[in-house]
Amino acid sequence: MINIGIIGAGRIGKVHLESISYHVKNAQVKAVADPFMNEQTKAFVEGFGVKEIYTDYHEILNDAAIDAVLVCSSTDTHAQISIEAINAGKHVFCEKPVDHSTAKIKAVADALAAHPGCKFQVGFNRRFDHNFAAIRKAYDDGRIGDAHILKITSRDPEPPNPAYIKVSGGIFLDMTIHDFDMATFLTNSDVEEIYVNSAVLVDPAIGEQGDVDTAIITMKMSNGALAVIDNSRKAAYGYDQRAELFGSKGMVATSNDTLSSAVVADANGVTGEKPLFFFLERYMESFSEEMRQFVNAVETGCEVPVGIHAGLQSVKIGLAAKKSVAEHRPVKLSEID
Amino acid sequence: MINIGIIGAGRIGKVHLESISYHVKNAQVKAVADPFMNEQTKAFVEGFGVKEIYTDYHEILNDAAIDAVLVCSSTDTHAQISIEAINAGKHVFCEKPVDHSTAKIKAVADALAAHPGCKFQVGFNRRFDHNFAAIRKAYDDGRIGDAHILKITSRDPEPPNPAYIKVSGGIFLDMTIHDFDMATFLTNSDVEEIYVNSAVLVDPAIGEQGDVDTAIITMKMSNGALAVIDNSRKAAYGYDQRAELFGSKGMVATSNDTLSSAVVADANGVTGEKPLFFFLERYMESFSEEMRQFVNAVETGCEVPVGIHAGLQSVKIGLAAKKSVAEHRPVKLSEID
Amino acid sequence: MINIGIIGAGRIGKVHLESISYHVKNAQVKAVADPFMNEQTKAFVEGFGVKEIYTDYHEILNDAAIDAVLVCSSTDTHAQISIEAINAGKHVFCEKPVDHSTAKIKAVADALAAHPGCKFQVGFNRRFDHNFAAIRKAYDDGRIGDAHILKITSRDPEPPNPAYIKVSGGIFLDMTIHDFDMATFLTNSDVEEIYVNSAVLVDPAIGEQGDVDTAIITMKMSNGALAVIDNSRKAAYGYDQRAELFGSKGMVATSNDTLSSAVVADANGVTGEKPLFFFLERYMESFSEEMRQFVNAVETGCEVPVGIHAGLQSVKIGLAAKKSVAEHRPVKLSEID
Amino acid sequence: MINIGIIGAGRIGKVHLESISYHVKNAQVKAVADPFMNEQTKAFVEGFGVKEIYTDYHEILNDAAIDAVLVCSSTDTHAQISIEAINAGKHVFCEKPVDHSTAKIKAVADALAAHPGCKFQVGFNRRFDHNFAAIRKAYDDGRIGDAHILKITSRDPEPPNPAYIKVSGGIFLDMTIHDFDMATFLTNSDVEEIYVNSAVLVDPAIGEQGDVDTAIITMKMSNGALAVIDNSRKAAYGYDQRAELFGSKGMVATSNDTLSSAVVADANGVTGEKPLFFFLERYMESFSEEMRQFVNAVETGCEVPVGIHAGLQSVKIGLAAKKSVAEHRPVKLSEID
To answer: β-pairing, A250-254 with A240-247?
Structure first.
C-alpha cells in the first residue's frame, strides 16, 4: 500500500484525492496540506477518511511513512516543493506546468539526477484519455504509417476570469500547454520550430492583459511531421477536444465525448448532444488512470509514463509560442534556452 | 450510513460489492453470504474490507445492524429469500427475474403489501444506462410527442453454454426480459399483446434444448404504441444494444458505446471500433447508478425506481412470448394468469 | 438507339421522360400518351423534344418504330395495357404494382410466356438505390455471412390525401409494397409467412377508410431469415428510409441521405440535416439507373433486373399483410392464391 | 437559348460539354476548338451533337452566333484567349487559375473594365458544392456568429506526375488555389497575411522539382478571422475534402461524401466507405451548378457568382504562399505586386 500526501487542496488536489480513494488500488491518501485550508475543504478531505490535515506541507515531507507526494499547489511553488520533496526522498507527482521558467524546471531535473531512484511524473493527464491513447496506439501499431500531419482542436467552453490570465502565464502556458504535450505524445516526437497566428476575438479584456484568446499554431516536429493546433477560449457548444493524425498509410481521428449517444430527429433536423462540458467531466477517467500509472511506477520501479523531459519540453514550446507572437516570426525551439 | 448484506457472491454479487464500495456514498457492504463460498471469492470480498462472510444467508437476515439485502442468488431462490428478508424487516434489492413463476412473484408482492415500509427494487439496471435514460428523458420532455413505434435491438456477442439454456428459462426469460423491461420503461406503458417470430439460426444445440436463438418480437403497448425487439444470441461484431423511439413529433435514437471514438481511415475504408464487449463493460456505470438510487430510497423513504410491478410485468411478457412461439399466434398479456 | 413510348404522363411518367432524356444513353422518348393530356403537360413533354403526343395509347402500340413502352398509367390499367403492349411486340417497363389482383398479374405472366423475347421490367426503383444496392452487394460478397435478421424502416413525411387511400389499395399495396420488394431483394429470398401489428396513430381519417397508418410487419423468409418492416405515414423529420441486414458474420446498415453533410454545433447541440424530403428527391438517381438497366436489357437481350416474379411476389405479400390484419394472425404466402 | 463555344477539349472541357448537354437548361454547346483535336475527342464531342469542331479557337470567337466561350485551354493561354474573347464581345467562363502572373490577370481585368456588359466567371467550382455551400449558408444565416477560425482539409488521393509539377506552378497555384478560394468564400473575406509550414513527405521527386507535397498554411483574413489549410498530395484513403467554420455562436462542419452510407460491422470493427475517389467524382454536381449560374448571368444580366476579383485574389495568395516558403516568414498579401 503506497501512502500518499497531497500538497495543495484546490480543485485538482481534490480530484486526485477522490481518484485515489475510489479508483486506485494499492494506494491511499494519508495526509493533505494546504496553506489556506478552510472548514469546507477540511470536511471534504475528512470525508475520504484522511486524518492528517495540515497547513504546512513540510509536515508531509517530514513524515517517513509517506512514499509519494502530489504537488497540486500554485504553479509558482511547484518547482520549489518538488525539489524539497525529491530531497526528502519522496516520489513526486507534479501538476503541469512544472514552472514557467526553464531554469527552475532544470533545477528540478538536477535534483532528480541526484536521486536516480525517485519517480517524478508530470500531470499531463490527457495522455491517459481513451481517445488520445487510441490515436497513439493506432500510430504505434503502424496503422497510419509515418506521421505527416497532426491536427489538434482544443477549445474551452468559457474564458477564464481576466484576473487569472496574468498569473496563468498566458494562453500558451496555461491552456495550450496540454496541446503542446499532446503534439509530442501523439507524434512521439519533439518540436523543432513553431509559428503562431493569433488574435483577440473572444474578449477584449484578454487582449488588455497582453494575451490572445484565439490561435492557430503550426509546428515542425523533429520526426519531420507538421502539426497544427487551433485554440479558442470560448466555444458556444462547449469543450471541443479533437485530434487527428494523418500519415503515409492512413489517418486516425477522434471526436468529442458526450453524455449519451441520443440523437433527436425532428422538424429542426437531427440533433445530438453537445460535448461534455469541461475538463473535469471530459477527462475525469484520465485523472484516475494517470494516478494508477504513477502508483504503479512507485510500486514496481518501472519508468513513469510522463517524466521531466515532457515537463520541460512543453514549457519550452509555450515560451517559443510567446516569442513567435511577440516577434511575428517562426521560432526554433533551440532559441529557447 | 446504510449497511448492506449481499446474498449470493457470483458475478453480479461481486459487481454490486465493487459498486457500493467505490461509487455509492452513504452505504457499505457489511456482510456477504454464499452457500458455495470458496477461498478465491472470500479473498475478493475481504479485499473490500468486508469482515462478515457466511455460507448461510440467514446470518445476514438475523443481523439487526443490516438495513438492506441484495438478493443475487440463483433465480429459483430469489422469491423465497426475498420474502424471508421482507419479513425480517430488511429492504430488498432483488436481481432479475424475480422468479419464472408469476405465482411466486405475487407471493413476494403479498409480503410487500404486509410491509408497506419495505423498499423493494428489481435489478433492471438498463433503466439507469445513460443512453436509454436519454431516450426516456426526450420522451418525458415531449420532444417526440406521442409514442408510435419503439424499436429495440439487443444482440449478445456469444451464446450461453447450451447447458445453461435449460435453467435460464429460455431466451425470453433470460435475455429478452431486459428488453421487455426496456419496452415498458421507454414507452412508459405496459404491454397488451405480443407476437414472436423466431428461429434457430446461431446454434442447433440451442434448438435441441427447446429454445430459439434469433427472434423478432412485436408488441402492442397499452398506450397504443407498437414495439419491436430483435434478438440474436450471437453478433459477430459484439454486444449490440440500441433503441429508437418514434413519435408524432420526432424520433430519438441511441447507438452503441465504444472504448474510444477513434476512427481509422485507410485503403480499406473508414473503420471505427466495435461496441463494448458485453454487459459488464457496457452497463457497468448503470449498476452503480441503480445501487445509488436503491440506497437513496432506503435512506430518504422515497419510492424505488423499479418496483415489484416491473418485476411481475417483465416475466408475464416473457411467458406470453413463450406461449406465442408454442401456439404460433399473437397472445394477449391478459391470457397470462 | 432504343425508341420509347411513355403511356401515362403523370408524376412518374414525367420522371422517366426526364431520366431518359438526360441520363440514359442509347434511348430516346419518341412518343407520350395520356388520356388527360393538358396544355401544361404537353409543354413539359415538348420541352424534351418529343413531337408525338397522344391521348390514346394505342397510337404508341401501333407505332412500329417504338421498341419499348413504359406503363405509367393508373394502377387499374397496368395489366391490360401491359398485355396489349406485349402482344403488340413491345418491350414493357411497368410501374408498380402491376395490379392489385394476382389473377391479373398472372395474365400478364401468361402473355409473357407466349412472347419469350419480350423484356418486361417492374418499377421497383429502390433496388437501384446506392444505399440498398450496397447492402445487397455486401451480402453477395459474403461480408455478413448467412442472413439472420433484416430490418427496414420506411416512413413517409406526410400521409396521402384520405381520398387517395381507397384507390391506392391501402398502405400495404401502395407504400409497403416497395419495402416488401426490398425485403426479397436484400435477402435474395421470397417470403414464407407474414404477421402484421398495426394501428391508426397518425390520422383517424385513414382509419375511417379501413386502412392503417402505422405498422410493424414481421416475416419469415424462404431462406430462414427473419425480417421486420416498420412503417409510418408521417415522420416529423421527413422521409426515413433505412435498412440493416444482420448475419452470421456481421451486419451492414445504411442511413438516410441528406442535402449536405453540414453539421452545426451550437448552444442547442450538434445538428445535422433532415433526410431528403420525399421519394422524388431521395430516389431520383435510382429512377435513372432502373431505366438504364431496362434499356440495356432491351438492347443486349440480357435478363431484366426486376421481372414479373417480383411483381407478383410483392402483391401477394401485400395481400397476405391485409389478411393478417383482418384475421389477426400470421398468414402463409401459400394461402394467397 | 445561349450558344456556347468551348475552347480546349481536355478533361475539364469535356466535363463542361457533358454538363451543359445534360444538366443546363437554355444552353447548348455549338462549337468546340482544340489545337490538338484527335479522333477520339472528336467522336466524344460529336456524341453530344456538336457539329462545329475546330483546331483554331478563333473560329469560335468569329462566330457571331456564339454568346459565350469557356476557356478550358492550358493555363498559360487563359489570359490571352480571355482578352481576345472579351474584345470579340463574348461572355467568358475561364478555368482556374486565370494565370500565374498577376500582371496578366490585371490585363484581363482591364479588358473587362472596357466591356462593362461582359460576364466573366472564374472556374472555382467548389463554391457550388453542396457541402461548402451549406457552410457559407449557415454563416450567412448568422448561425455561427462572427467568424473566428476556418479550417480546410484538402488532400489528394495521388500525387500528380512529377513532370506536371513544373508546369503546374507548384502545389499552391495548382492544388491549394482551390482552398485559397474556399477560404475567401467561406469567410466572405480576403486574405491579409499568410504563413506556410511545408515539407516533402510524399515523394522526393516532388522536392527535386522545387515543390512541396505536404503543407499547413495559416492566414489572417481581412475580417479578423484566422484560417488554416492542411494539404497533402497523397491520402491513402482517398480524396479528403472537409471544412469547418468556427465562430462566436457556434461551428459548422462538413465531412466527406461517399458512394453510399453503408457501414459494415464485423469482427474487424465498424467500417464505412472511403471518400469519393477524386474531383471528378466528388465535385461533378458542382461543375453543373457553376455552369447553370454562368448561363443564368449571361441570360439575365445578373452578376456572376465568381468574378475576376476572386481570380486575382487566389493567385496572389498562392504567390504569397510561395514567397512565405522561400523566405521562411509570414508574408502580407500587400507585398504581392
So the answer is: antiparallel
Q: What percent of chain B has pLDDT over 70?
A: 100
Q: Which residues of A touch C274 (CB under 8 A)?
A: 265, 267, 269-270
Tell me which residue in A214, A234, A250 faces D237 most closely, judged by beta carbons: A250
- Model confidence at B103, pLDDT cuts 50, 70, 90, reads very high
Dihedral sign (CA D233, D234, D235, D238): positive
Model confidence pLDDT, tens digit, residues B21-50: 988 988 999 999 999 999 999 999 999 999
Q: How far, in Å, CA of D86 to CA of D101, rounded?
A: 19
Chain B nearest-CA residue for C231: B149
Is A203 exposed, middle or buried, given 0-12, 13-18 or 19+ CB atoms closer than 10 A?
A: middle
CB C102 within 8 A of CB C315: yes
Model confidence pLDDT, tens digit, residues C92-109: 999 999 999 999 999 999
Nearest to B261 among A143, A254, A263 (CB): A254
Strand order, beta sheet including A27-33: A52-54, A27-33, A2-7, A68-71, A91-94, A120-122
The β-bridge relationship of strands A120-122 and A91-94 is parallel
Shortest alpha-carbon distance between residue D271 and chain A (Å): 13
| pTM across the whole model | 0.96
Coil, helix or strand at residue A129: coil
Chain D residue with CA closest to B266: the answer is D237
Mention every residue, 6+ apart, whose C-beta is less than 8 A from residue D86: D92, D108, D111, D112, D114, D115, D118, D120
DSSP string computed for A91-121: EEEEPSPS-S-HHHHHHHHHHHHT-TT--EE
Nearest to A271 among C235, C236, C271 (CB): C271
Please tell me what DSSP assigns to residue C115.
-
The pairing of beta strand D240-247 with beta strand D147-155? antiparallel
Residues of D whose CB is below 8 A from B269: 237, 271-274
CA distances from A168 to A96, A178, A180, A240, A333 (A): 11, 13, 16, 21, 21
Q: Per the CB < 8 Å rule, is A237 touching C274? A: no
More confident residue, D308 or D165: D308
Predicted local confidence at residue C162, as pLDDT:
83
Residues ≥6 apart with Cβ < 8 Å to A253: A135, A242, A243, A244, A245, B262, B263, B265
Report, as an integer, the average pLDDT of D261-286: 95
pLDDT of residue C25 exceeding 90:
no
pLDDT tens across B243-264, in order?
Answer: 999 999 999 999 999 999 999 9
Closest Cα to residue A44, out of A77, A21, A69? A21
* Amino acid found at C186: L
ipTM: 0.95
Q: What residues of chain A score a pLDDT lower than 70?
A: none
pLDDT score recorded for residue A25 = 84
Closest among B185, B44, B27, B22 to B91, alpha carbons compared: B27
Average pLDDT, chain D: 96
Residues B171-195 have pLDDT tens digits of 999 999 999 999 999 999 999 999 9
Which three three-digit cell numbers place residue C262? 453540414
Distances (CA, A) of A117 to A82, A106, A111, A294, A306: 15, 18, 11, 14, 16
The runs of H, that is alpha helices, within B97-230 are 102-113, 130-140, 162-168, 171-174, 176-187, 204-208
Question: CA–CA distance from A65 to each of A3, A111, C277, D264 (Å)?
Answer: 7, 22, 70, 56
Mutate to test the interface with A, among D200, D226, D325 (most CBs of A within 10 A): D226
* DSSP-H helix ranges across chain D: 11-23, 39-46, 58-61, 75-87, 102-113, 130-140, 162-168, 171-174, 176-187, 204-208, 279-282, 284-300, 308-327
CA separation for the pair A135, B273 (Å, rounded): 12
